[in-house]
Amino acid sequence: QVELVESGGGLVQAGGSLRLSCAASGRPISRLNMAWFRQVPGKEREFVGAVRWDGGVTTFADSVKGRFTISRDDAENTVYLQMNTLNPEDTAVYYCATSVANSWRALPLIRDMVDWGQGTQVTVSS
Predict the structure, then answer these.
(1) How many Å from the N-terminal Cα to the C-terminal Cα in the chain?
(2) If you average pLDDT over residues 7-20, what whole number do you get?
């Protein structure tokens, strides 16, 4: 089991940027796919982006494509979500999650996720 702790959330104006971090402990993430999801109260949790276990492939939801990037630092056991050109629709709690290597998909599913962090709030003001 992997413990995940997200950080870096906060309040930002529309058009601004934030970088979220997901620090993992308990086991190395080097053989795990890492994903980000987000959730707004009253709505289902939705996929944001993910990076494959080898770092060779990333995938993003259409709503964030071209604005968000993901990187991983396996030496630090940390994954990052760089969010640029933020808009109020990006306001949500952002969660980091893991999945096993052989469950990689172009559009990761919640049911494939194994471990979850507690989330970090991102608020974008207009």
Answers:
(1) 39
(2) 98
